[in-house]
């Protein structure tokens, strides 16, 4: 599902955008959900990298759209930002916050569809290197490269990252399906590791930092092959 934020103080314009989202979802068969905010403050206070696309009015009563986007970028470097404005000249500064594009009010569906198609393509590209999950009722968007290993423990999924640990509900098989195919390896029924952080392989264990992770006997040979292939690819990229 794609989560869309509409930050717009005009009820007419926000309703128009909601209708465009609903129409696009129906026409393309894309699973989408729109959330509307009429002010910057509630949007920013609740923002936690849970949106894929943000349609952002560039002139809100309580804050300028550029300033809002700057605050969003402090938390989320990948969310697609599309400014909504009456005059294109106001959206030119969008490059400062890596905005993808802008649309002119009043919104026409043909223009919306074109922008949304581009936004979905960008989201799909980003999804290849990010994973998203719910942690204590908050969405967490995590770079796959920052994930050291994942384990299932007492029916919970534990994400061990460079910046700390997160707990979520789910299955290890679902996590495995969401992670990039290259660079991650499932050691058995309980662990998926990021090969980038493997310090060494000792017999039936993988060592990541001070953690020893068991390797299924049937998967050890495949792990060693994947490990050497991964580091061979890294060496090739460095040249």
What does the model show?
The chain is 34% helix and 32% strand. It is α/β, with parallel strands linked by helices and 239 residues long. Strands 2-1-3-4-5 form a five-stranded parallel β-sheet. A five-stranded antiparallel β-sheet has the order 10-9-8-12-11, with helices on one face. Strands 13-14-15 form a three-stranded antiparallel β-sheet, with no helix packed on it.
* CATH H level, superfamily name of the largest domain: Response regulator
Strand order of the largest sheet: 2-1-3-4-5
Q: How many individual domains?
A: 2
Largest sheet: 5 strands, parallel
Low-confidence stretches: 233-239
Q: What do we call the CATH topology of the largest domain?
A: Rossmann fold
Highest-level CATH class of the largest domain = Alpha Beta
Overall residue-averaged pLDDT value: 88
Helical content class? 25-40%
Globally, the shape reads elongated
Order of helices and strands: EHEHEHEEHEEEEEHEEEEEH
């Amino acid at each position: 599902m794609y989560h869309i934020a509409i930050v717009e103080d005009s009820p007419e314009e926000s309703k128009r955008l909601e209708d465009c989202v609903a129409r696009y979802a129906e026409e393309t068969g894309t699973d989408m959900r729109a959330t509307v905010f009429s002010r910057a403050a509630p949007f920013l206070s609740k923002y936690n990298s849970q949106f894929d696309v943000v349609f952002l009015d560039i002139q809100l009563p309580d804050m300028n759209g550029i300033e809002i986007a700057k605050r969003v970028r402090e938390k989320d470097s990948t969310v697609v930002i599309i400014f909504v404005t009456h005059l294109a000249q106001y959206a030119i500064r969008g490059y400062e916050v890596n905005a993808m594009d802008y649309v002119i009010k009043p919104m026409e569906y043909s223009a919306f569809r074109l922008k949304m198609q581009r936004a979905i393509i960008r989201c799909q590209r980003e999804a290849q290197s990010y994973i998203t999950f719910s942690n204590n009722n908050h969405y967490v968007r995590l770079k796959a490269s920052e994930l050291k290993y994942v384990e299932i423990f007492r029916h919970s999924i534990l994400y061990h990252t460079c910046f700390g640990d997160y707990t979520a509900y789910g299955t290890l098989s679902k996590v495995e399906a969401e992670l990039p195919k290259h660079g991650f390896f499932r050691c058995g029924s309980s662990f998926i590791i990021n090969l980038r952080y493997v310090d060494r392989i000792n017999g039936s264990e993988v060592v990541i930092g001070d953690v020893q992770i068991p390797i299924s006997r049937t998967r050890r040979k495949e792990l060693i092959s994947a490990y050497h292939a991964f580091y061979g690819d890294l060496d090739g990229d460095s040249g």
